[in-house]
Amino acid sequence: MSFLPFSLPDITSKERAAVDETLESGWVTTGPRTKKFEAEFAGAIGAKNAVAVNSCTAAMHLALEAIGIGSDDEVIVPTMTFAATGEVVRYMGAKPVMVDVLPGDHNIDPAAAEAAVTSKTKAIIPVHFGGQACDMDAILAVAQAHNLKIIEDAAHAFPASFKGKKIGTIGDITCFSFYATKTITTGEGGMAVTQNQEWADRMRVMSLHGISKDAWKRYTAEGSWYYEVVAPGFKYNMTDIAASMGLVQLDRVYEMLEKRRRIAAAYTEAFKDEAGIQLLDVRNPDDHAWHLFVIKLVDGVLSIDRNRFIEELKEREIGTSVHFIPLHTHPYYKKTFDHSPPGFPSALDAYRRSISLPVYSKMTPSDIERVISAVLQILTKFKR
Ligand SMILES: Cc1ncc(COP(=O)(O)O)c(C=O)c1O
Q1: Is 153 in the pocket of ligand 1 (CB under 6 A)?
Q2: How many domains does the structure of the chain reveal?
Q3: Half-sphere exposure of residue 268, counting CA atoms within 13 Å on the CB side?
Q4: Which CATH number does the domain housing residue 220 bear?
Q5: What is the tens place of the pLDDT at every residue in 333-352?
Q6: How far apart are the C-alpha atoms of 264 and 79, rounded to whole Å?
């Protein structure tokens, strides 16, 4: 039996043909395919502007820059997230103020976020954990009450919705990831989506050296050698090689989502009555991007802990992951910031008990069955 990886990209002959065509075209960096990908991505979400970049991290950095975050500012982030969400705040010299998550779905706790607001708070970055939207009604209420901008970390959440509204149409700027493991991939890639033209223009300029006006066009027939640098920008532009892959992935997004949805439904059915396993709360399975499927071990039921459970799955040739090691526990954040009470009991508890199972469209029915039977076997073997 071969090893079942935790994640695999779903690349078909269509992506390969599209990339090949781009390579043949002679235009390999930002160009017409990137522009097309931006337009189609914005269209898929129903947003006005989409700025394609080379990662979600880049998108979040540009978003914070565009809304004017400065070194005296504070930005609220959940501790239950990936490194990127915290580091982009540090790129601006600002302070990431970490807050706890809700025990049911691992999304930011709006009450904890509100309690963390100070006179320095300028923005909040909700992370749509695993592809399930945060309670955006509550986040919007906090943001409105305290005049905060909302930059959504939607690295897991394309395509996801909150109460029928697509993620990408709710906050001020929403940032998506097309990293290798994500719901659509361009290898590396990201997109910043916003209704605000001024922010979109600023992000576009800053994504390519701070060069004014369509810098990418300077080598085209209609372009010119002349350019002006209006700010010290970054090198975050997406290549047409990546965009051509993204266009095909975008076309296939619902086909791939449907497969993940079925995997999630099969796991839910198999595990929902198991005393040793707790599943995350799901508001509406149809609104979920199903990027992750997390099981949490219930204390006192098994004679082994989470780490051993992961080892047991590995022995059965099944790859897993853990989302996330809470940000405030990492050495850098521990030594740099003072994390005073109330602390992060829910994130720490979730971290201690969580395992992310494989959920990706390349999984076959027998892969799914293998994961289910391995989990059930371990539960039986180590029942107290
Ligand atoms: C919650 C979250 N935010 C941001 C990122 C960063 O995405 P990227 O690798 O596209 O920069 C990730 C990637 O794993 C993530 O899980």
Answers
A1: yes
A2: 2
A3: 13
A4: 3.40.640.10
A5: 999 998 777 899 999 999 99
A6: 25
